[in-house]
Amino acid sequence: MTSRPSPDHRPSSSADARPYPTVDVHAHLLLPEVDALVADLPASAEARALDARRNGPAALAVSGPMVRERAPMMTDVTARLAAMESQGVDVQLVSPSPSHYHYWADEETAEKVYRLANEATAAHCAQAPARLHGLGLVPLQHPEQAVRALQHALEQGLLGVEISSHAPGRELSDPAYEPFWSRAEETGAILFLHPFGCTLDERLDQWYLSNVVGQPVENAVALSHLIFSGVLDRHPGLKLIAAHGGGYLPTHIGRSDHAWSARRDAGAGCAHPPSSYLKRLYFDSLVHDPHVLRELVRAAGADRVLLGSDYAFDMGTEAPVAALRAARLPDPDFHAIRGGNAAALLDLA
């Protein structure tokens, strides 16, 4: 049994003076208002049943009490700030729990969801504006609403939006999303790619494989769609952060490069080897293994990795700075990932 790293406020050497804040870009918010909005809708019950099948009864028996226990940390700003103090985190980029996507919703309900989520997230962050910055939601199941939803989020003072790895019947490579990518690029909005659910369904319904394996798979598939389809060629200015270190893709990107060079079907959609696009994306540091984190830094570059904790869920880390320190990176890389990269990306004063 491995010991849990303790919270760590220290710079990596006594000579360093913390020139910028420690920034956690992967921190969640629960929105009871959104849950109440959709609770009695028949389609919501169907979505919950699908989620139950995908996760399995054993996982649900653990997840329910875990979320209830940790809910105050994701709803009450005072509790959030206290946790940040204990972790040595100065600033959080707060995104709604992915359980609030509700990509099953019809157009009318979807608009209500994103408006309520954006406004509630902005209100939460406004209670500590120097320390909390927020992301909203967009209904990927209705691409025609995506630009309006993004604009609404920005109008609330949010820095961008959180998106999943796909919507029912649509991958992120779908041409219907082109106006959304264009608007995100034009505005400089942050896009946080965080999966919810995995289309492998009941194959992952034991041992919490729906999350343990499913999330990294979904990250890798979604990023591959963005790369191989040419989305990142057409929109090189996108500011996209991939949760969970980008899943399995960065550490297995050599296979993608080989396919791009060896097969005309694989190489038809993007102009450059897939590995080169890792340096156009951002990744959080939440990979749970210092050796994997070092490989992520090697593959993407130290300037493309940001501190992430998955606050406050049990699949995150309660000591993100200590987890970063365990990778034993050079001091400049450590401090860039600890906060320098995020400070520049989020334009923190």
Summarize the model shown.
With 349 residues, the protein is an alpha/beta fold. It contains 15 helices and eleven strands. Strands 4-5-8-9-10-11 form a six-stranded parallel beta sheet.
Walk me through the structure:
This is Amidohydrolase. Pfam families: Amidohydro_2. Keywords: Hydrolase, Lyase. Residues 23-348 form the Amidohydrolase-related domain. By secondary structure, this protein is of the alpha/beta class. The protein has one domain (23-345): TIM Barrel. The chain contains 15 helices and 11 strands. Helix 6 runs parallel beside helix 7 (178-187).
Low-confidence stretches: 1-17
Query: Structural class of the helices, strands and pairings?
Result: alpha/beta
**How many helices in DSSP terms?**
15
CATH architecture: Alpha-Beta Barrel
The CATH topology annotation reads as TIM Barrel
What value does the Rg take, in angstroms? Answer: 19 Å
Strand content: 5-15%
**Mean pLDDT metric:** 94
CATH class: Alpha Beta
Strands, total number: 11
Task: Please list the strands of the largest sheet in the order they lie side by side.
Answer: 4-5-8-9-10-11
CA-to-CA gap between the ends? 42 Å
Instruction: Describe the largest sheet.
Output: 6 strands, parallel
Percent helix, as a range, is: 40-55%
Helix and strand pattern: EHHHHEHEEHEEEHEHHHEHHEHEHH
Name the overall outline: globular
CATH level-4 homologous superfamily: Metal-dependent hydrolases
Instruction: Count structural domains.
Output: 1
